[in-house]
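Ticket #4471: complex job returned nothing on first submit. Input attached below:
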Amino acid sequence: MFLQQLVNGLTLGSTYSLLALGFTLVLGLLNMLNIAHGDVFMFGAFLGLSFAMLGVPLYLALILAMAGAGIVTIIIERLCFRPLRKAHFLMPLLSTIAFGIVLQNVATQIWGSEPVRYPQATEITQFQLGPVLVSSIDIIILATSLVLMLGIDQFVKRTSFGRAMRATSEKPQTASLLGVNINWVIIFTFFVSGALAGVAGVLTALVYLQITPFIGIRQGLIGMVAMVIGGVGNLRGAMIGGLIIGIIEVMNDAYFTAGYRDIILFGLFLAFIVFKPEGLFGTKER
Amino acid sequence: MSVYTQGVVALMGVNILMALSVYAIVMADQVSLGNAGFMAIGAYTSAYLSVKFGIPIFPSLIIGALAASFIGILIGIPILRLEGLYFVMGTFGFGEVVRSFFMNFEPTGGAYGFRGPVGATLPMIYGWVLAFMVFFWLLERSRLGRSLDALRDDAEVASSIGLNVTLLKLGVFWLGSFTAGIAGGLYAHYMFYIESGNFHILVSAMAILCVILGGMYTFWGALLGGVIFSILPEVLRFMGGWRLSVYGSVLVLMMIFRPSGIISRHMVRNAGEWVGGIFRKASS
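Support reply: We reran it on our side without changes. The output follows.
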């Protein structure tokens, strides 16, 4: 029973990790928060749904939703961040809240405000691994998240573009003087951030099978919680933070009252922000 | 006035109070994204007292706001140590905790919401708005107001000339949470019904937007922002289903083209001199 919950928690948590990763990429780079991130997640889920409805195979729908969500996030960068790069940090934050309202409204107009059922994308087969029952959906989610996380981790660490990203987040002016094209780094980072949210959206929708235009708000907040717990700006911290949140959520639902789940998660968030703002693995001073 | 117009005007009053509650904290150079949480505490407390114990509206509003500001002090002591984005995230986390709490708290109806408080009228709401405006007007002119200006310009300099920065910050946080508590109580007693969804993060965000776009350096900005953001959604009603998209886009564009707000202190002073000049001319 406990092991089973652990697997469920890891599966759910890995989607949170993807969200937190997107948050932390942008925050680490610009020191600004994209509140519309959760709504990009929702938009990605609906895009995936639309492609799946057209009969596109799952992996292709996933890639297309990724690209779509990434493009939406580039638009966010153009409208909410680039014109406000020198403004007070609150301006882009509020601007993204407004953009989130637009995304929710557009999704409501296109797909309706009633919960939409996701089509059964693949044959679900269950595997019995010792005491644990794992479905093929779980495996798809875990594998996709793991590949993406490892990919990004290695990309930022080893490639020259990754080095440019790290340099920009450290000292944008110096990086620019040394020949890094900051605008490209920022656009690329936003695209990756959005693409991750889009994937997370499709993967989450595969499990819960129902989506509405308003699911993004809570998911975005949870992604932020995971980011803070892992340590702001720390990629691996965000991944582990997401897994921790997923496990706490599933365990709470299994052994405690589901209604108090968000109080516990946001209470934890508050405790971290106040008493340990650098998070579990953070090294950046605030 | 039709019932519809009355509703819009009443909500405008509540929005102005919420904007003032954000402005109070902005005076100490901090921006709170959790004022909907204080609003919720004020709303639920005063509504519960009115409905369950038959306490009249005025004392129940005050008790509700005191409850909100008491929690404000409790949360303010740890959270005011944070700065910038971390303060925003911390207050935001607080707001969400409060909302989830009332979503699940059975004595006040949980997810079904709480029904019953009545009695807020338009004159009552605007009486409170006026009272707070006068208070902020006096505050801006007082010694305390000058201290807050100093704190806002440079906290280190302010503390080096002997101002108690921590106490000032805590004071404005108390004031902000009290104001939001009153706004919540009035809202509950005007709407007859409240649910946790009424105190969403977007409510906090709207209050900040009012202050920023109205102008961050004077409380008149909160008034103007509250008026604009209450009327704008109604003006856009002809857009039908796309209304919120247009509304959001207008906000995004406002940020790009007018990021420093509409009213500055300079403008208020000039306007004051202009009005004063007219009076002088008329009397001579």
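DSSP finds eleven helices and four strands in chain A. Closing as resolved unless it happens again.
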